[in-house]
Design a protein that fits this description.
- The complex is a heterodimer of chains A (365) and B (309).
- With 365 residues, chain A is an all-alpha fold.
- Chain A is built from 14 helices and no strands.
- The model of chain A has no long low-confidence stretch (mean pLDDT 90).
- With 309 residues, chain B is mainly α.
- Chain B has a single domain, classed as Orthogonal Bundle (ABC transporter involved in vitamin B12 uptake, BtuC), CATH 1.10.3470.
- Chain B has 12 helices and no strands.
- The chains are: A mainly alpha (365), B mainly alpha (309).
Chain lengths: 365, 309
């Protein structure tokens, strides 16, 4: 009996540590790449660690970088649990940020305790609408959500460029040299800083919401429906669950968290929106990297917390590594790609082990 | 607005539309093969980027566009095999692993570019190759027969792909494996081998797609050169209902709208450029609404296959 319990514990531990093993493999491949680029991998990774955790500011930057990853990751958890692949985090972040910024610009002299929560809620809704459109297209017209969310990303970027160059531009920016950006939001609207660093309240909001999403997914009937549709759409239909409604709702929620991520980027960090013409210029690719973080957290909201932290550290540390060993920071995007590949591929071993356990049970019985 | 009706403008729009469709055609036809065999490869854009950089770098250092093309084919083929290993042998979730391949290609192409090139330098890649006699035909000659070799290749690929898919044993195997892998397997068609072949072919074509950008159409490389073209190509496969000639139709519509949008800006039509750039993407969504559900996707698309499971 004791032995069997130990065995089961080991199995669970092994399954839980699979993504970490996969990530270590990816980092090992990264080390080989560093070698090939003529850099010392130990020195490179040491600089990366130093850059991410070297002092109080580095820690703060890592957490600040992790915040949008966690929020987007929460949205991704919801969508993927419903069996819907949301690639539209970038666009949803932008729409949420635009909507939230508009609130701040329009109500400059209203009290912060009213404007800031309102702006975050509006950002949440902005993302929800953008994600909901993809959900509606899938439910009503059977349009593949991977494709529609990718198109909607481009549309959102262009909308941002248009608004920041025209209707929403900072009135002080005039002439041909005008920077496409909004005016700075009133200082009263800045999210409170937690310690004298860049660390702002957004991180705490994100962690709190991770718990909320956990409760939503595992303790409410909506969450049950979302997971049921993701596990077996056919069976849930027979259980009386409306698949179309669940898909639309889960993409709305997914987009909402991405939208909130965008809104928090504005109120916590940049305090205005500015565009360099690309999505990454505003999002820092958090809409994509959040997917990576969620997968790494095994699509579990609580698991996504340390996962986002890990990727936040990678992204912050990469800049330091770039300076220390002269390897472009783009290495981290490459590593992110490898981690995704290794993590999804490692699922095979989990399935194999589960199958073997089931067979063993059958033989024992 | 008078200018808009000018023949040179019409020729300009049509000929750049034909040219702009090239990378989409290569990538989308390659993706069609993969999807017909049941594998969704979402990493096309990453493969295009890696091949675009490697062919660009080859031309930059060695000067020969043909050598550049060869390198693109090799890199694309290798990436196709890698995608096969991930999605077929390791049976990883296709949509997500494709994103991984995309990020890998996006990061690595930028990394290598920054490390070995630094700032964008123009190269001289494939030149326009007017076809003798045909290019002299008024109007049509300028539009169709005064393009680069890679552009002609893209259009020749369409009937070829149609023929392979519909008239050869290999094509029949591909379709069988994509519709009902268990049955195909029981009749002695190797599901794994067929899917590896289509993914390798898809990778090679994605590689050529990338090269067509960096060493024929634009003759330059920069970070994220494709700007999501590979994803559009995947959308065009859905739009085309997994049939080469409809994929061609979709690519042409998308590219003509794109060309029109560029020319409208050049001619000063009063539409904000940011909104104009959006048009082809809005159109793609609209077109997807009308085309989705019209044709049934391959039944085994995105489903991994394991014998006896």
């Amino acid at each position: 009996m004791q032995k069997r319990l130990n065995k089961r514990l080991f199995d669970r531990l092994f399954d839980a540590s699979l993504p970490i093993i996969a990530a270590l493999f990816a980092l090992a491949v990264g080390a080989v790449m560093l070698l090939l680029l003529g850099a010392n991998p130990l020195e490179g990774y040491a600089a990366l660690l130093e850059g991410a955790f070297g002092n109080k500011n580095a820690w703060a930057d890592t957490i600040v970088k992790a915040t949008p990853l966690l929020l987007v990751g929460l949205g991704i958890c919801i969508a993927f649990r419903a069996g819907v692949i949301n690639i539209g985090g970038e666009g949803q972040m932008i729409m949420g940020a635009l909507a939230a910024t508009l609130v701040g610009i329009r109500l400059p002299s209203w009290p912060a305790w009213f404007v800031v929560p309102l702006a975050l809620i509006v950002g949440f809704l902005g993302g929800a609408i953008w994600g909901g459109i993809a959900g509606f297209l899938k439910a009503r017209f059977n349009v593949n959500e991977i494709l529609s969310t990718i198109m909607m990303n481009v549309i959102a970027v262009q909308l941002m460029n248009f608004l920041l160059r025209g209707p929403m531009i900072d009135k002080e920016q005039i002439g041909a040299a005008a920077i496409p950006q909004t005016a700075r939001l009133a200082r009263a609207f800045d999210l409170p800083r937690l310690v004298p660093t860049r660390l702002h309240l957004g991180a705490a909001i994100a962690v709190l919401l991770a718990v909320v999403v956990y409760v939503l997914l595992w303790r409410t009937s909506l969450g049950y429906r979302i997971r049921a549709v993701g596990l077996n759409a056919f069976a849930s239909k027979y259980a009386g669950i409306s698949i179309n409604r669940t898909i639309i709702l889960s993409l709305m929620l997914s987009g909402a968290f991405c939208g909130l991520a965008g809104a928090i980027q504005v109120y916590g960090l940049s305090h205005r929106m500015v565009t360099d013409g690309t999505a990454a210029g505003f999002t820092g690719s958090a809409g994509f990297n959040g997917i990576v973080a969620a997968l790494f957290g095994q699509l579990h909201p609580i698991g996504t917390i340390p996962a986002s932290f890990f990727f936040g550290a990678l992204l912050v540390g990469a800049t330091k590594m770039q300076r220390a060993v002269q390897v472009p920071a783009a290495l981290v995007i490459t590593l992110n790609g490898l981690i995704v590949i290794f993590v999804v591929s490692s699922e095979l071993w989990r399935r194999r082990r589960a199958k073997r356990r089931a067979l063993q049970k059958m033989v024992d019985a | 607005m008078q200018d808009f009706l000018d023949w040179t403008v019409v020729i300009g729009i049509l000929s750049s539309g034909i040219r702009l469709a090239t990378p989409y055609l290569y990538a989308a036809i390659g993706e069609t093969f993969g999807q017909r065999s049941g594998v969704l490869n979402l990493g096309v854009d990453g493969i295009m980027l890696l091949a675009a950089f490697s062919s660009y770098f080859t031309v930059l250092t060695l000067g020969s566009p043909w050598l550049g093309l060869l390198v693109a084919i090799l890199v694309g083929g290798l990436m196709g095999i890698a995608m096969g290993f991930i999605s077929i042998t390791l049976q990883a979730e296709q949509g997500i692993s494709g994103i991984g391949v995309y990020l890998f290609g996006l990061g690595l192409s930028d990394l290598l570019f920054q490390k070995f090139v630094g700032t964008a330098k123009a190269i001289s890649g494939f030149k326009e190759f007017p076809i003798p006699l045909l290019s002299k035909i008024p109007f049509f000659g300028d539009i169709f027969f005064s393009q680069s070799v890679l552009v002609y290749g893209a259009y020749l690929l369409i009937p070829l792909a149609w023929f392979i898919l519909n008239k050869t044993t290999f094509g029949l195997n591909i379709r069988a494996v994509g519709e009902n892998p268990e049955a195909a397997d029981s009749l002695g068609v190797s599901v794994q081998k067929t899917r590896y072949l289509t993914l390798t072919l898809g990778g090679i074509l994605a590689g050529i797609a990338g090269a067509s950008l960096s060493i024929a159409l634009l003759n330059v490389f920069q970070q994220n050169l494709t700007n999501g073209m590979g994803f559009i190509a995947v959308a065009l496969v859905y739009f085309g209902g997994w049939r080469p000639f409809y994929v061609l139709l979709g690519s042409l519509i998308f590219s003509f709208v794109n060309a029109l949008q560029v020319w409208m800006q050049v001619l000063g039509v009063p539409i904000p450029s940011d909104i104009a750039v959006m048009m082809p993407y809005v159109l793609t969504i609209v077109v997807l609404i009308f085309s989705a559900g019209r044709v049934r996707p391959p039944a085994a698309l995105t489903k991994t296959y394991e014998r006896g499971s």
